[in-house]
Design a protein that fits this description.
Chain lengths: 334, 283
């Protein structure tokens, strides 16, 4: 249970800056998702915290202690790898007990704690699981063992590096709830790297969005989803409709600025409908309608931009009006 | 229309002549392969049991175990033990040098890495004879000529090439994250190597050792240049024997030389899972 602080961290590979002046605080006992496209620096950030990468400048602190110059062995972090990184030549028991044996914990204590953690990750029901070797287990089971191996040493900081990206969608959804439950149960400060925005929002107390080695926004899932700080975050949070130029200015953007909104927040008005209060109206032309199952998605041209709007039924007339709640519109300066 | 649509193999199957033709072709291929593989071996075996065999008789005129008797009392036994001693020493030294070196080559970003690997390939890239002749000259200068130590040294020149190249591939095939996971949990680099990388590389290490051992046991050029006439291993012994037109002794030596290879391959097949072997080959 320690707060993790990163201060002005900088790391470059040749000319490319993987981290440029990144400062962040990961509150104690919280789970923070670090989100971004590949190459945004999120993995470099995590590996710097683990001690596998030595930053050129900046400082890393665990609970006030400066750990920047400590070797990875001395940091007391536990990492869950994307590839699980379980040792295929050892049994599940030996995999999990490895960290404990390094700490010279007596054999009986090791046995008890391995049993405990196997129950915690809900894999103790698999018959003879301790004596099996990782390649004999399914992907989901392997990830549970990897979690157990990390949790059993009671780490100061739990690091999760895209732990679910090698699993299929169903298992992924189950396991992310599990990871959340486990992290709350043990109360360790956890940092969770992912490129999946839905996963990040579902699992985290805080979300950090990174791009090109810099932090674009940090906040609660609600904040980054509802109030993206800039166009990059908006785009990453799945806001697909971007208006520029005159259409944007008519919604209050300054010259060169943009106005964005979500596909499900606009309403298509019928010819006879009145404009609801606190809404603005945009005129456009329907170019295409596709059926998504939950709704009909209309591709509507407004000026030079094509926007997507979902409706319960397909609109027959080509000329339509869109009603947008004022609160649903985000304006970004150029 | 229907006859045109019926697939060709069915037509062939219905024709008994095609079936017989195919079978005889298969039999001919099998017979040819057997001849190619077993023919020379059969010659060796026949020669080893020959006492007299003069042209133009098809088979020896006098059979017997006379020459097998030489195995015990001639220099052959001594050559065999010397050869095995050298091969074992070469294998151990080679493992001792090649394991850490190939691990470093596989893991650490060393400048000029391709150059180092190329350096190890060089002795194989040039014709063996000049390379070994030069090395022999150097070894004689260091007073290692005609000694077991000299033969070991010249064997290492070739053995290290095999070992470093194969073991570098073996270590490269082990994901770095496996060792990082150990280090992350508090293991030192050495401990991570000993508990994670080394056990995972073990099948590759064994396969590579077998290769080196057999290669050393069979090595001729270097052994002759450095060792002869004081140090004799089976290949140089056979050479000397064949020069005296004692084809029987040469055949028996050749058969003895094949035994370790067959035993080792059988053991590898028995104790190393095929997946390990394929990894060794494909890494």
């Amino acid at each position: 249970m320690e707060r993790v602080e990163v201060l002005a961290l900088t790391k470059s590979y040749g000319k490319a800056k993987a981290l440029s002046d990144v400062s962040l605080t990961f509150p104690e006992g919280s789970l923070t998702a670090v989100l971004g496209p590949s190459g945004c620096g999120k993995t470099t950030l995590m590996r710097s915290i683990a001690g596998f990468i030595q930053p050129e400048a900046g400082e890393i602190r665990f609970g006030g202690q400066n750990v920047t110059r400590l070797q990875p062995q001395e940091r007391g972090t536990a990492m869950v790898f994307q590839s699980y990184a379980l040792w295929p030549h050892m049994t599940v028991y030996d995999n999990i007990a490895y960290g404990l044996k390094l700490k010279r914990i007596p054999e009986t204590e090791v046995r008890r704690r391995v049993q405990e953690v196997l129950e915690l990750v809900e894999i103790s029901g698999v018959t003879g699981v301790e004596r099996r070797k990782p390649p004999e287990l399914s992907g989901g089971q392997q990830q549970r063992v990897a979690l157990a191996r990390a949790l059993v040493v009671q780490p100061r900081v739990l690091l999760l590096d895209e732990p679910l990206s090698n699993l299929d969608a169903k298992v992924r959804q189950r396991l992310r709830v599990e990871i959340r439950r486990l992290q709350k149960a043990v109360g360790t400060t956890a940092i969770y790297v992912t490129h999946d925005q839905e996963e990040a929002l579902a699992i985290a107390d805080h979300v950090v969005i990174m791009n090109k080695g810099q932090v674009e926004q940090a906040g609660t899932p609600e904040e980054v989803y509802r109030r993206p700080a800039n166009l990059f975050v908006a785009d990453f949070m799945g806001i697909t409709n971007v208006l520029r130029g005159q259409a944007a200015e008519s919604l209050g953007a300054t010259a060169g600025g943009t106005a964005v909104f979500r596909a499900n927040e606009a309403r298509i008005l019928h010819a006879t409908d009145a404009v609801p209060p606190e809404h603005v109206v945009l005129a456009g032309q329907v170019e295409e309608v596709t059926y998504l199952g939950t709704a009909y998605r209309h591709y509507i041209r407004i000026g030079a931009e094509l926007v997507m709007v979902d409706a319960d039924r397909a609109m027959a007339e080509p000329q339509v009006r869109l009603a947008l709640p004022r609160t649903a519109i985000q304006i970004f300066a150029a | 229309m229907t006859t045109m649509r019926s697939p060709l193999p069915a037509q062939e199957r219905s024709n008994p002549l095609v079936g017989i033709g195919r079978m005889s072709l298969k039999a001919a291929v099998a017979a040819f392969l057997l001849f190619v593989v077993l023919g020379p071996l059969a010659g060796l075996v026949i020669w080893s049991f020959t006492i007299t065999w003069f042209w133009p008789s098809v088979l020896p005129t006098e059979w017997g175990l006379k020459y097998w008797g030489f195995v015990g009392n001639s220099g052959m036994m001594k050559a065999l033990t010397t050869g095995v001693l050298i091969a074992v020493t070469v294998t151990l030294l080679c493992l001792l040098i090649a394991t850490p070196l190939s691990y470093l080559l596989a893991r650490v970003k060393i400048p000029f890495k391709p150059l180092i690997l190329l350096l190890f390939l060089l002795p194989q890239a040039f014709p063996q004879l000049p390379v070994f002749a030069n090395t022999a000259a150097i070894l004689y200068r260091f007073n290692m000529g005609g000694k077991v130590s000299g033969v070991i040294m010249i064997h290492l020149v070739g053995a290290l090439v095999f070992a470093v190249w194969t073991l570098t591939a073996v270590f490269k095939s082990i994901p770095v994250s496996l060792e990082e996971a150990a280090i992350n949990l508090g293991a030192s680099r050495t401990r991570a190597f000993l508990t994670v990388a080394l056990p995972l590389a073990l099948p590759g290490l064994i396969a590579s050792s077998v290769l080196v051992f057999l290669w050393s046991l069979d090595e001729f050029t270097g052994t002759l240049l450095v060792g002869a006439p004081f140090v004799q291993t089976l290949p140089t012994f056979m050479y000397a024997a064949a020069q005296g037109y004692e084809l029987q002794v040469a055949s028996i030596t050749a058969i003895l030389l094949m035994v370790p290879g067959i035993v080792m391959l059988a053991l590898m097949e028995r104790y190393l899972k095929s997946e390990y072997l394929s990894k060794f080959g494909g890494a």
